[in-house]
Please model this.
Amino acid sequence: MLEVEGLHAAYDRVEVLHGVSLTVGAGEFVCVIGANTAGKSTLLRCISRLIPSRGRIAFMGEDLARLPAHRVPGLGIAHVPEGRHVFGGMSVEDNLRAGGYALGRRADLETPLERIYALFPRLAERRDQLAGTLSGGEQQMVALGRALMLSPRLLVLDEPSHGLAPIVVAELHRKLVEIHKEGVSILLVEQNVAVSLAVAERGYVLQSGRVVLEGRAADLAADDRVREAYLGI
Ligand SMILES: Nc1ncnc2c1ncn2[C@@H]1O[C@H](COP(=O)(O)OP(=O)(O)O)[C@@H](O)[C@H]1O
Ligand SMILES: [Mg+2]
Model:
Protein backbone atom coordinates (compact mmCIF):
# COMPACT_ATOMS: atom_id res chain seq x y z
CA MET A 1 0.00 0.00 0.00
CA LEU A 2 2.73 2.46 1.00
CA GLU A 3 6.20 2.04 -0.41
CA VAL A 4 9.07 4.28 0.64
CA GLU A 5 12.41 3.62 -0.99
CA GLY A 6 15.73 5.40 -0.59
CA LEU A 7 14.20 8.47 1.02
CA HIS A 8 16.47 11.43 1.71
CA ALA A 9 15.35 14.64 3.40
CA ALA A 10 17.15 17.72 4.62
CA TYR A 11 16.53 20.94 6.50
CA ASP A 12 18.60 23.86 5.20
CA ARG A 13 20.77 21.42 3.27
CA VAL A 14 21.59 19.40 6.38
CA GLU A 15 20.47 15.88 5.54
CA VAL A 16 18.56 14.12 8.33
CA LEU A 17 17.13 11.09 6.47
CA HIS A 18 19.80 9.09 4.66
CA GLY A 19 18.03 6.64 2.39
CA VAL A 20 15.11 5.26 4.40
CA SER A 21 13.08 2.38 2.96
CA LEU A 22 9.92 0.90 4.42
CA THR A 23 6.56 -0.53 3.40
CA VAL A 24 3.10 -0.74 4.88
CA GLY A 25 0.95 -3.48 3.37
CA ALA A 26 -2.82 -3.16 2.99
CA GLY A 27 -4.36 -3.80 6.40
CA GLU A 28 -1.03 -3.80 8.19
CA PHE A 29 -0.16 -2.14 11.51
CA VAL A 30 3.47 -0.98 11.32
CA CYS A 31 5.47 1.05 13.81
CA VAL A 32 8.65 3.05 13.47
CA ILE A 33 10.53 3.38 16.73
CA GLY A 34 13.52 5.50 17.53
CA ALA A 35 14.94 7.96 19.99
CA ASN A 36 14.33 11.69 19.94
CA THR A 37 15.81 13.32 16.77
CA ALA A 38 16.11 9.98 14.93
CA GLY A 39 14.04 11.48 12.10
CA LYS A 40 10.62 9.95 12.77
CA SER A 41 8.59 13.14 12.33
CA THR A 42 10.61 14.09 9.27
CA LEU A 43 9.78 10.72 7.71
CA LEU A 44 6.06 11.28 8.27
CA ARG A 45 6.26 14.85 6.94
CA CYS A 46 7.83 13.49 3.75
CA ILE A 47 5.05 10.93 3.33
CA SER A 48 2.41 13.65 3.77
CA ARG A 49 4.39 15.87 1.37
CA LEU A 50 4.76 18.61 3.98
CA ILE A 51 8.46 18.84 3.19
CA PRO A 52 10.37 17.99 0.01
CA SER A 53 12.39 14.80 -0.25
CA ARG A 54 14.37 12.68 -2.66
CA GLY A 55 13.57 9.01 -3.27
CA ARG A 56 10.46 7.06 -4.01
CA ILE A 57 7.18 7.36 -2.12
CA ALA A 58 4.25 5.50 -3.62
CA PHE A 59 0.77 4.99 -2.21
CA MET A 60 -1.57 2.47 -3.85
CA GLY A 61 0.74 2.58 -6.86
CA GLU A 62 0.51 6.36 -7.15
CA ASP A 63 3.74 8.38 -7.02
CA LEU A 64 3.42 10.83 -4.13
CA ALA A 65 6.72 12.55 -4.77
CA ARG A 66 5.20 15.18 -7.05
CA LEU A 67 1.93 15.70 -5.25
CA PRO A 68 1.26 18.83 -3.20
CA ALA A 69 0.36 18.25 0.46
CA HIS A 70 -3.30 19.24 0.01
CA ARG A 71 -3.86 16.30 -2.37
CA VAL A 72 -2.64 13.70 0.14
CA PRO A 73 -5.78 13.43 2.35
CA GLY A 74 -7.91 12.84 -0.75
CA LEU A 75 -5.81 9.77 -1.55
CA GLY A 76 -6.74 8.26 1.79
CA ILE A 77 -3.78 9.16 4.02
CA ALA A 78 -4.62 10.92 7.29
CA HIS A 79 -1.71 12.29 9.32
CA VAL A 80 -2.05 13.06 13.02
CA PRO A 81 0.95 15.30 13.67
CA GLU A 82 3.14 15.55 16.75
CA GLY A 83 1.47 17.48 19.58
CA ARG A 84 -2.26 17.45 19.74
CA HIS A 85 -3.18 20.72 18.08
CA VAL A 86 -6.85 20.62 18.88
CA PHE A 87 -8.71 23.89 18.49
CA GLY A 88 -9.07 24.62 22.20
CA GLY A 89 -11.71 27.30 21.83
CA MET A 90 -13.95 25.11 19.69
CA SER A 91 -16.27 22.32 20.82
CA VAL A 92 -15.29 18.68 20.44
CA GLU A 93 -17.83 18.28 17.66
CA ASP A 94 -16.62 21.34 15.75
CA ASN A 95 -13.07 19.99 15.99
CA LEU A 96 -14.25 16.72 14.47
CA ARG A 97 -16.24 18.48 11.76
CA ALA A 98 -13.13 20.51 10.92
CA GLY A 99 -11.44 17.19 10.13
CA GLY A 100 -13.95 16.66 7.35
CA TYR A 101 -13.19 20.03 5.80
CA ALA A 102 -11.01 18.51 3.09
CA LEU A 103 -14.01 16.49 1.91
CA GLY A 104 -15.75 19.63 0.67
CA ARG A 105 -18.84 21.51 1.71
CA ARG A 106 -21.44 19.01 0.59
CA ALA A 107 -19.79 15.94 2.10
CA ASP A 108 -21.76 13.73 4.48
CA LEU A 109 -20.12 14.32 7.85
CA GLU A 110 -22.83 12.61 9.90
CA THR A 111 -21.82 9.04 9.04
CA PRO A 112 -18.15 9.40 10.03
CA LEU A 113 -19.19 11.42 13.12
CA GLU A 114 -21.43 8.62 14.34
CA ARG A 115 -18.64 6.11 13.76
CA ILE A 116 -16.20 8.21 15.76
CA TYR A 117 -18.66 8.67 18.61
CA ALA A 118 -19.24 4.91 18.65
CA LEU A 119 -15.49 4.38 18.90
CA PHE A 120 -14.99 7.12 21.52
CA PRO A 121 -18.13 7.27 23.70
CA ARG A 122 -16.38 9.81 25.91
CA LEU A 123 -16.19 12.25 23.01
CA ALA A 124 -19.89 11.72 22.37
CA GLU A 125 -20.63 12.65 25.99
CA ARG A 126 -18.48 15.76 25.65
CA ARG A 127 -19.40 16.80 22.14
CA ASP A 128 -20.43 20.31 23.23
CA GLN A 129 -17.51 20.86 25.58
CA LEU A 130 -14.62 23.12 24.54
CA ALA A 131 -11.75 20.88 23.40
CA GLY A 132 -9.25 22.96 25.39
CA THR A 133 -10.88 21.87 28.65
CA LEU A 134 -10.36 18.13 27.97
CA SER A 135 -7.58 16.01 29.46
CA GLY A 136 -4.49 15.25 27.37
CA GLY A 137 -5.73 11.76 26.57
CA GLU A 138 -9.13 13.05 25.49
CA GLN A 139 -7.49 15.70 23.31
CA GLN A 140 -5.46 12.96 21.63
CA MET A 141 -8.74 11.12 20.95
CA VAL A 142 -10.11 14.31 19.37
CA ALA A 143 -6.99 14.58 17.17
CA LEU A 144 -7.40 10.94 16.19
CA GLY A 145 -11.13 11.34 15.58
CA ARG A 146 -10.49 14.39 13.43
CA ALA A 147 -8.19 12.32 11.21
CA LEU A 148 -10.79 9.54 11.02
CA MET A 149 -13.35 11.99 9.62
CA LEU A 150 -11.64 11.43 6.26
CA SER A 151 -12.28 7.66 6.47
CA PRO A 152 -8.62 7.11 5.62
CA ARG A 153 -7.13 3.91 4.26
CA LEU A 154 -3.85 4.71 5.99
CA LEU A 155 -3.61 6.43 9.35
CA VAL A 156 -0.22 7.99 10.08
CA LEU A 157 0.38 8.85 13.74
CA ASP A 158 3.25 10.86 15.18
CA GLU A 159 3.88 9.99 18.85
CA PRO A 160 0.26 9.95 19.98
CA SER A 161 1.29 8.66 23.40
CA HIS A 162 3.70 11.52 24.10
CA GLY A 163 3.11 13.04 27.52
CA LEU A 164 0.25 10.70 28.44
CA ALA A 165 0.07 8.54 31.56
CA PRO A 166 0.66 4.79 30.94
CA ILE A 167 -2.97 3.88 31.60
CA VAL A 168 -4.13 6.46 29.05
CA VAL A 169 -1.56 5.21 26.53
CA ALA A 170 -2.92 1.69 26.95
CA GLU A 171 -6.45 2.93 26.28
CA LEU A 172 -5.33 4.89 23.24
CA HIS A 173 -3.52 1.88 21.81
CA ARG A 174 -6.60 -0.29 22.36
CA LYS A 175 -8.49 2.20 20.21
CA LEU A 176 -5.81 1.92 17.53
CA VAL A 177 -6.21 -1.84 17.54
CA GLU A 178 -9.99 -1.38 17.09
CA ILE A 179 -9.47 1.04 14.21
CA HIS A 180 -7.03 -1.40 12.65
CA LYS A 181 -9.57 -4.21 12.97
CA GLU A 182 -12.03 -2.10 10.98
CA GLY A 183 -9.59 -2.34 8.08
CA VAL A 184 -7.53 0.84 8.39
CA SER A 185 -3.79 0.43 7.82
CA ILE A 186 -1.67 2.16 10.45
CA LEU A 187 1.82 3.64 10.47
CA LEU A 188 2.63 4.53 14.07
CA VAL A 189 5.74 6.45 15.05
CA GLU A 190 6.74 6.33 18.70
CA GLN A 191 9.57 6.86 21.15
CA ASN A 192 7.56 4.62 23.44
CA VAL A 193 9.17 1.43 22.17
CA ALA A 194 7.75 -1.26 24.44
CA VAL A 195 4.12 -0.21 24.03
CA SER A 196 4.28 0.28 20.27
CA LEU A 197 5.93 -3.10 19.69
CA ALA A 198 3.12 -4.61 21.74
CA VAL A 199 0.37 -3.25 19.45
CA ALA A 200 2.01 -3.23 15.99
CA GLU A 201 2.52 -6.28 13.79
CA ARG A 202 5.81 -5.19 12.27
CA GLY A 203 8.36 -2.54 13.07
CA TYR A 204 11.37 -0.56 11.95
CA VAL A 205 14.05 0.92 14.17
CA LEU A 206 15.16 4.33 12.97
CA GLN A 207 18.50 5.61 14.23
CA SER A 208 20.07 8.89 13.10
CA GLY A 209 18.08 8.92 9.88
CA ARG A 210 18.68 5.27 8.94
CA VAL A 211 16.68 2.08 9.37
CA VAL A 212 19.01 -0.12 11.41
CA LEU A 213 16.64 -3.00 12.17
CA GLU A 214 13.31 -4.25 10.94
CA GLY A 215 11.14 -7.25 11.55
CA ARG A 216 8.08 -8.65 13.23
CA ALA A 217 7.21 -6.63 16.31
CA ALA A 218 7.54 -9.65 18.58
CA ASP A 219 11.02 -10.41 17.20
CA LEU A 220 12.13 -6.80 17.66
CA ALA A 221 10.85 -6.75 21.23
CA ALA A 222 12.96 -9.85 21.92
CA ASP A 223 16.05 -8.55 20.09
CA ASP A 224 18.97 -7.85 22.43
CA ARG A 225 19.96 -4.71 20.51
CA VAL A 226 16.46 -3.27 20.91
CA ARG A 227 16.24 -4.34 24.54
CA GLU A 228 19.55 -2.74 25.41
CA ALA A 229 19.17 0.46 23.44
CA TYR A 230 15.48 1.21 23.93
CA LEU A 231 14.02 -0.88 26.67
CA GLY A 232 16.87 -0.59 29.17
CA ILE A 233 16.86 -4.32 29.83
N1 LIG B 1 11.94 22.22 11.19
C1 LIG B 1 13.20 21.80 11.34
N2 LIG B 1 14.25 22.60 10.95
C2 LIG B 1 15.53 22.16 11.09
N3 LIG B 1 15.88 20.97 11.59
C3 LIG B 1 14.90 20.16 11.98
C4 LIG B 1 13.51 20.52 11.88
N4 LIG B 1 12.76 19.51 12.33
C5 LIG B 1 13.62 18.54 12.73
N5 LIG B 1 14.91 18.93 12.51
C6 LIG B 1 16.12 18.12 12.77
O1 LIG B 1 15.99 16.91 12.04
C7 LIG B 1 16.42 15.80 12.81
C8 LIG B 1 15.29 14.80 12.91
O2 LIG B 1 14.22 15.38 13.66
P1 LIG B 1 12.79 14.73 13.79
O3 LIG B 1 12.36 14.23 12.48
O4 LIG B 1 11.93 15.72 14.47
O5 LIG B 1 13.10 13.50 14.77
P2 LIG B 1 12.13 12.70 15.74
O6 LIG B 1 10.74 12.95 15.31
O7 LIG B 1 12.56 11.29 15.59
O8 LIG B 1 12.41 13.21 17.12
C9 LIG B 1 16.86 16.36 14.16
O9 LIG B 1 18.26 16.51 14.14
C10 LIG B 1 16.17 17.69 14.22
O10 LIG B 1 16.93 18.61 14.97
MG1 LIG C 1 9.13 13.67 16.31
Notes: The mean pLDDT is 94. Residues 213 and 223 are 10 Å apart (CA to CA). The pocket of adenosine-5'-diphosphate (ligand 1) is lined by residues 11, 16, 34, 36-42 (CB under 6 Å).
